[in-house]
Amino acid sequence: MRRSLLVLALTAALMPAAGPLAGAATPTIRLDDLSQRPSVRPATFQVTTTVALGGLHWSHWGAPTATGSGTLRINTCRPNCATGRIRVLHGALLQVRGVRIDRDQRYYRQYRILDRAFTPSERATYTRWTDAYVPSDFR
After folding, report:
1. What are the boundaries of the signal sequence (predicted)?
2. Over 70: is that where the pLDDT of 103 sits?
3. Which of 6, 34, 111, 138 lies at a 20 to 30 A Cα distance from 56?
4. Which residues partner with 105 through β-bridges?
5. Is position 49 within any domain?
6. How sure is the predictor about 139, in pLDDT bands with cuts at 50, 70 and 90?
């Protein structure tokens, strides 16, 4: 009986723990943008050649929706993009959602940008969910 208890105790000690900690590695989800440098929790997000977010700090990465807060810079391109004014919005939010598989990697599928200081035109342009890039989009 003593030997059975010892074997049972050793078996229990060597078995992997059950529950959320056992093998609970968060799936790696990347985000790609116009810069074509996909990464996990990126510090920057290049929307277009004239619009970018920087200094992003993320919450809930890997969840169905993740949110990054940072600084949005929009080149007004008035009178043209070379001499346009840069509109800076601190505290802009970048939300990403959904998952898309590309080349056996997981990527957030859509994004939108939110900021209280948006003009009506900016609100219409940036707050709707837009398809995010994946590497296959560039090749």
Report:
1. 1-24
2. yes
3. 138
4. 102
5. yes
6. confident
Q: Which domain holds residue 91?
A: 30-138
pTM, two decimal places: 0.79
- Please answer whether residues 57 and 69 qualify as being in contact, where contact means their C-beta atoms are separated by less than 8 angstroms: yes
DSSP category for residue 134: -
Residues 6+ apart with CB under 8 A from 29: 40, 61, 62, 99, 106, 107, 108
Do the beta carbons of residue 82 and residue 7 sit within 8 Å? no
Contact between residue 89 and residue 72 where contact means Cβ atoms under 8 Å apart: yes
Q: Domain for residue 58, yes or no? A: yes
Spatial separation of the C-alpha atoms in residues 121 and 116, rounded to whole Å: 13
Number of folded domains that form the chain = 1
What average pLDDT is seen over the chain?
86
Provide the token pair at 22. 């056992």
| Structural domain includes residue 1 | no
Tell me the pLDDT tens digit for each residue of 60-96: 999 999 999 999 999 999 999 999 999 999 999 999 9
HSE-up of 84 (CA within 13 Å, CB side)? 16
Neighbours of 137 (CB within 10 A): 12
What SS3 class is residue 50?
A: coil
Residue keyed to tokens 């008035």:
78
